[in-house]
Input
Amino acid sequence: MTRRRWIAEHWDDATATLTGTQAEHLARVLRAQPGVEADVVAGGHVFHAEVAAVSPQEVRFNLIAELEADPALPVTLVMAVYKFDSMEWAIEKATELGVFAIAPVIARRTEKHLAYAAAKRVERWRRIAKESAQQCRRSDVPVIHDPQPLNAVVAAPSDAVRLVLAEQERSTTLRNAIASALQSEQSELPDFHIAIGPEGGWAPNEEALFDDNGWRAVSLGPRILRAETAAIAALSILASFLE
Ligand code: SAH
Output
């Protein structure tokens, strides 16, 4: 049975502590006792640990040995905000697939009420990412950036390979764009920024904005995918090159 994995809120070089609902769950539901072993993530590192002390408010672990961490994919998803339930499902799937960060952006065709609500929703998105990271035993939690206007992200200087998923694009596939980016990069793995549009797609002036800022339009094939499907497909294709 694989050891359960917990993400600690507080740690030092010898112990790690869970607080809040996690501690309560461990103490009350799982009835953890001193000596119980678990994997504990502290500061992005994974440790083999054992429970040292338990109370419904706090569970403290002794850190026994650091374990091999599984690095996230060097991929940031630039996701246009769209209907929250689908977007939250995409955040959970992207976390399982190893995304490093998600940058929610307000696109021209993001529905106005979602654009207004996004700033208040981001804490919930961070909780979804953390719970999903824990469930899939990641050693890190994806960063969920504060929502920003699209042009702030598109025009920001970056040395990442920047690809925009464009449903109208026919000549360049995501796969070929990744392959050529990896061939041209000399030494270490580049970061990838992948932009996914809202349900209404990218507006023409947004496609021009991407183009003017050096983003490469790429296709995921002839069918029009939902944004959440495009996120899963893009991360899976990237993982097939990077893992
Ligand atoms: N309203 C648009 C579809 C938008 S789908 C239309 O009906 O044409 C939401 C986003 O998913 C798109 O903006 C794009 O970023 C991505 N996407 C969907 N299908 C894609 C494909 N075949 N190739 C590349 N990107 C795609």
Remarks:
- The chain has two domains: 5-67, 75-242.
- The radius of gyration is 20 Å.
- The helical segments are 20-29, 84-96, 112-135, 150-154, 174-184, 204-212, 227-242.
- The longest helix spans residues 112-135.
